[in-house]
Amino acid sequence: ALGAPLSPPLPCLFNYNPHPPPHLQTPPAVPPVRALTPEAAHPRSPPEYSDVCFATHYRCDYPTAEVHIVVRSELLRSAPDAIEFLKKWDFHAGNQLTAEDYLNASGADYSEVAVWFLRNTTEWQSWVTPEAREKVFDGLSDLPNPPTPAPTPTPIPSQDFGPLSGELEHLDSASNKRPIKAAGVSVQNFVAEATFANPYDCSARSWAHGLLFRVNENVVSNPLVAIGVSCNGYWSVDVGSGDSQERRYEGQTTGLSTGSGELNHLRVVAVDHKGWFFLNGALVSVLDLTGAVHTGDVVITTGHYIGSQSIGFTTPYLQFRASELLWLYGPASGQLTPSPDEKAFHHASQSSRDVIVEVTCITPQTDYDCGIYFRDNYPDADEVVGIDNYGSWFHLTKYPNNDDYTEVASGRTRVSSRNVLALIALADIGWFFVNGELVASLNLANNQVDGWIGLFAGFYQGNDAEVEFTDFNVWAPANGEH
Prior knowledge:
Layout: H1 51-56, H2 75-78, H3 80-88, H4 93-106, H5 110-120, H6 130-141, E1 160-169, E2 180-182, E3 190-197, E4 208-215, E5 225-230, E6 234-239, E7 246-252, E8 263-271, E9 274-279, E10 282-288, E11 297-302, E12 314-336, E13 344-352, E14 355-362, E15 369-377, E16 381-388, E17 392-398, E18 405-412, E19 418-426, E20 429-434, E21 437-443, E22 451-457, E23 467-477
Antiparallel strand pairs: 1-12, 2-11, 3-8, 3-12, 4-5, 4-11, 5-6, 6-7, 8-9, 9-10, 12-23, 13-22, 14-19, 14-23, 15-16, 15-22, 16-17, 17-18, 19-20, 20-21
Helix pairs in contact: 4-5
């Protein structure tokens, strides 16, 4: 049993070797990035209308407008049928919002929206003669189907915890009991983190910090995920509990502070079958969470391995927090078709500061770029990450009162005709992944505000090849910030 009670109580979960073997087995290969399954929804409304917003970038509510139809007087005599149509035509707010909802959900262009509107609404049929209606139907039958819209998310309440600071009092080092602090949440997709102050120098005694998640007594066999870090640099990730527990990942890290009172920060991001484990801001491992995909609590602990705590000592913890990730947008698919003079965009029509984004770009062999924009507060700020056909990746930022983008970082990576891009952006730091590989830690200190999210192609002049995208998904904390 664990040393501190939870509601419901946790069973005996661990029986670790306090001294990990010096020669570690090769950790299992990181599984390929897969499409993430949305589990929750988080719609966000655009900013209210203002003259400044509407005059600069149109990313706000529209103003109330009256539509006037003006014709030449001779049209009354030469085309009375057209006059009759114009008298009946009424593209009122209900029709406009119906079309706009499809436009935003599908990423279709305006001509495709028109086709969809004529095929899926009936009011327009009363504006035209029966003969004209049949001609419209005949014309529609020869046109391709417009894009299928992404399903409309349903909002659900979020669960957040912290930040909280406190102490974990050490127990008997010879037992498998350990002190814990539970967040008391029930989440599947989340960001969780805590900073631990080392109770003493590692050269004097062993210590080990831990973070557990998806802890749920109501799930058969309670298949939780347990991450531990020992002061000798050994780390492990276990999935399951009891006899079914599997050590799925393990390794040795050099990024640990080991002195008495020094701080170590653990962070986990989890979305369905996929997770990311960070230590002191650096990625330790991408995680396959298969077998433990369910809601549960988030717990921190000390003395994670047997022999790694000493009675009479405490391990202080700082800023323990957990934020549920809600499904903001997706899954969406479509095409990005830039021209020599214009970039192509697909807007998620949602905004947030902190986000997790994943998309698959299906690309030609030459002359393309594809990527993600986020924290877009045009014209004041924007962040851009992407790749091109040469195998280059790039991170650009936009400063207020500057029309140009500034390169923050760039480099080389492996690309193919099908590239999975993933982004994690949290406050002043982020991580950019291409095909499951971390290509860059991102400095986001320039832009830490709520902004719009979406995809682009043709960012650089000459990269005007069409890019297909699929499995575009966005997750974010409920209030936009972790």
